[in-house]
Amino acid sequence: MTQINFKSHSARYTLSILGWMTLYVILLLIVGFYARAHPEPTPLLYTLAVLPSLPVGMTIWCVLRFMSKTDEYMRAILTERFVTATGLTLFLCTAWGFLINYAQVQSPPLYMVYPMFWIFYGISCAFIRSVK
Amino acid sequence: MKTNLKELRSAAGLTQADLAVKLGVSRQAVIAVESDKHDPSLDLAYKIAGVFDLPVEDIFDNPYRPKTGA
């Protein structure tokens, strides 16, 4: 039976991501309930509304930390995937911005940018399998 | 970068996982170096040379060095 080394960088990375994403879901639920019950804009609502973005920031920090801890080959692959996904996200968001500006296309919620980034990251994983 | 790492590793009776542990890198990194999909850093090249107790250029072909006797 394969033993899982919970002290390995990849295990720590996976557990950290799971932890922060769990907190993200919990915060989303709490803020959602609160915002529906108290829709009037107050400093508390502004504060709570920002809270779910903090775990998102922490997941990015987890990725960057994992990159710094892993070996040079894995770091090169992860960096290329990360940069590719970032570039594609920036490109699509810019294109959508022009569509909104010039063609009156509907604006998607900005919080969708983060999942969009991970979709592009997943796609880049399929194509970026090695780096010189 | 052309390398005879795979032959050296086999001759030393090491698996890719064994070599990865000795070098402190992932097995994927060893596979990538062996299959010329990754050019190792100078640090990693020296580590590999250290494991086999050989000069770096006995393991990796230096494409910039003029060939002697040509």
From TrEMBL, chain A:
Transmembrane segments: 12-37, 43-64, 85-105, 111-131
UniProt keyword terms in alphabetical order: Membrane, Transmembrane, Transmembrane helix
Domain of life the protein comes from: Bacteria
Protein name: Uncharacterized protein
Organism: Asticcacaulis aquaticus
Lineage of the species this protein comes from: Bacteria, Pseudomonadati, Pseudomonadota, Alphaproteobacteria, Caulobacterales
From TrEMBL, chain B:
SUPFAM superfamilies hit by this protein: lambda repressor-like DNA-binding domains
Keywords of this entry: DNA-binding
Entry-linked InterPro entries: Cro/C1-type_HTH, Lambda_DNA-bd_dom_sf
Domain HTH cro/C1-type: 5-59
Entry protein name: Helix-turn-helix transcriptional regulator
